[in-house]
Amino acid sequence: MKSSRHVLQKTATVVAVLSFLASAACAWFLYWKVGELGIDHPINASLIAGIFFFLFVGGLLLFIGGVDLPSFSVHDD
Asked: HSE-up of 56 (CA within 13 Å, CB side)?
């Protein structure tokens, strides 16, 4: 069986990198907003949830993009 990375796996890898960048952006905004609004503001809770979401989605998509899936197409020999 021939195995190669499919276009969707390559797309998942790119989206994973973008997700990690979005997580870093949420962390930067959190750092910026904590100094401005204080720690008890609801915006900070949403930014922490965004960091959590983007980190785990990025990890999952990175795993999906790196898996070596075999080709299950049927060929007549």
From this structure: 5
**Nearest Cα to 29, choosing from 42, 48, 55, 15?**
48
pLDDT by residue (tens digit) across 28-73?
Answer: 999 998 888 888 889 999 999 999 999 999 999 999 999 887 777 7
Task: Name the nearest CA neighbour of 2 among 69, 76, 77, 64.
Answer: 69
Report the predicted TM-score, pTM, of the whole model to 2 decimal places: 0.80
Total residues belonging to the chain: 77
- For 1-77, strand residue ranges (E) read none
- Is the CB of residue 77 less than 8 Å from the CB of residue 69? no
Phi, psi (5° rounding) for residue 5?
Answer: -75, 130
